[in-house]
Write the structure tokens for this entry.
Amino acid sequence: MTYKIGTKEQPMVLKTPPLSSEYTMHADVKDGQDILVCTVGKTVLHYNMNCLNDLHQLLKQHNDWMELGSADEQKPAKEGTVEAWGRSESNPVGGWYGLKKGLRGRFGMYIPPLMEALGLAEVTHEAKGNKMRAK
């Protein structure tokens, strides 16, 4: 499925689930692969574009709220969270959706608001412990 995510020149402006920080997201192609480019301040993260459809499918099957559990790559992800699934060998890509070594984590922080903006999911906006579910 094709999504209107924005371009490098006109990226989507999003807020983290607690609504505490702004970041941008746009679509791009790197090494022949469709990717999401997430820019947080001066940090640039890349995610496999397939994560949108794959996570949406997972959430539909889960059929309930799922904790986000965002964590840096170097930290373990809490089991049963969106973050843990985004790096699990049992997901459709067989591992990390994050593509830049050292910056592959935070899947549960930056992908859910994009999915909410695209109308694929609902996300809670509490100070901590946010969740999402399929729309």
Q: What stands out?
A: Residues 12-134 form one domain. The chain has a mean pLDDT of 96. The chain has three helices and seven strands. The two ends are 16 Å apart (CA to CA).
